[in-house]
Amino acid sequence: MSATEWYIKKGKTQAKTIIDNWLTLVKEKQKAGFTGLRAAGEMEVFFNYAKNKELLRYEATLDRQLPPTMCALCLYDTHRLDEQELIQLTHSHGHSIFKGIAFKTT
User: Fold this and answer.
1) Residue-wise DSSP of 20-84
2) Angle in degrees, CA 71, 77, 79, rounded to 5
3) Domain spans of the chain?
4) pLDDT digit string (tens) for 59-105?
5) How far apart are CA 83 and CA 95, in angstroms?
6) Rounded to whole angstroms, how far apart are CA atoms 23 and 48?
7) At CA 37, angle to CA 16 and CA 41, rounded to 5?
8) Are the C-beta atoms of 17 and 29 separated by less than 8 Å?
């Protein structure tokens, strides 16, 4: 599924809908015999559709909603973020890697 299909529906982005989709996918995979789910999301689509505010809302709630059986990697072009957006996204994630520098957010 493309990032547009996953994150943007009819031009709209809703954090709750995206998170519900992740939770449904985890349950489906567990029913199929998997112990969990690892996912990578290309976040460029949010910038392409001028959905920066929606992205920040989604990321702020995502980590608290995911079950421990799911691990997600969010990929960003940091040049598409202003300083405050970058700070907010960094605080929304437990771990971050920038140009080979890794750190854990507390």
Assistant:
1) HHHHHHHHHHHHTT-S-EEEEEETHHHHHTT-HHHHHHHHHHHHHHS-TTEEEEEE--GGGS-HH
2) 145
3) 3-104
4) 998 878 888 999 888 888 888 989 899 889 888 887 888 776 655 66
5) 18
6) 25
7) 60
8) no
Question: How is residue 80 written in tokens?
Answer: 């598409």
Task: Please state, in angstroms and as integers, the Cα–Cα distance from residue 34 to each residue in 2, 72, 98, following that order.
Answer: 23, 16, 31
Number of Cβ within a 10 Å radius of residue 29:
15
The pTM of the full predicted model, rounded to 2 decimals, is 0.82
Rounded alpha-carbon distances, angstroms, from residue 24 to 37, 45, 64, 67, 92? 11, 22, 16, 11, 22
CA angle 43, 11, 64 (to 5 degrees): 45
Neighbouring C-beta atoms of residue 30, cutoff 10 Å: 15
